[in-house]
Structures are given as structure tokens and as C-alpha cells.
Fold:
Amino acid sequence: MVLSDRDYRLIEAIQDGLPLSSRPYADIGARLQMDEQAVIERIAALQEEGIIKRMGIVVRHHELGYTANAMVVWDVPDERLEEIGEQLGAQPCVTLCYQRPRRLPEWPYNLFCMIHGRDRGRVLEIIDEMIASHDLREIPHKVLFSGRRFKQRGARYQ
Structure:
């Protein structure tokens, strides 16, 4: 797919986020001299061609009052990884749940769950409740609370 100057301007217009309005694509179109439907169709075409990999929301949890953010890392037996991952990922308190390879011998953990909370004590209670309700007492884990924030943003295209 050959990108036009308009495509580059469109990508530049969306890479820092969509406008917070009831019709963000219309707002972008007005800036680029395109109508709303043309913006929507062009973004869809760029996604279909793999130029834009995905679009999503970047939630800034800290600004919403969620300052007790914990990554729970688990050393799940491989034969139970899918089962336990699905159980934990379905919990309302879990915002991310994904598998990563172990890095033995230093790092035995292969399942990661992110939990955002307003209070560290409550987050620890929630984790204890998850362990009890899913019978995970025998699964080794660590709770890693965020100590530093980095700027969150979407993908940047050159």
C-alpha cells in the first residue's frame, strides 16, 4: 500500500489520541479537510493493510485516583496456564492478564495480572480473595506495586 500525504497527516492526527468529543472523526476530518465517513473508512483501510496495528484507549489510572497499582506475577504449571489465566483474566479487578516466558533461574513467573486500586491494603485483600476463590494457595506468586510512573501513550509512527 502506498501512503498519500493525506494518509500521513491522518496518522499524525490520531497518534496522540482522538479528540474528546462526541464526534472525534468529524473533528479530525475538519482539520484535514475530509468528511467524517472518509476518515473512518481511511483508518479502516490502514488497519486492514496493517499500517495501523490497533487502536485502543490509554487509561491514565493515577489521574483517576487509582494509585495502588499491582502486578501479580505467578509461577503457574504449564498444564494449568490456560485454565488459570482465563479464571484470573475474567475477574473484574484484573485489567491485564497475559503470559510471558520464564527467565530461569532468576525469574520463574509466567503469568502476569495487573490490578489497579485506590488503596494498597484493599488491593492486597482482593488478591487474597482471588487466591482463595480460585484455590491458588499452592501457586507461587509475588505482588509488585508500581513505584514509578512512565508516560503512557499510543504507538508513534515516523
Residues 120-133 form the longest helix (14 residues). The chain has a mean pLDDT of 92. The chain is about 35% helix and 15% strand. Residues 97 and 113 are 4 Å apart (CA to CA).
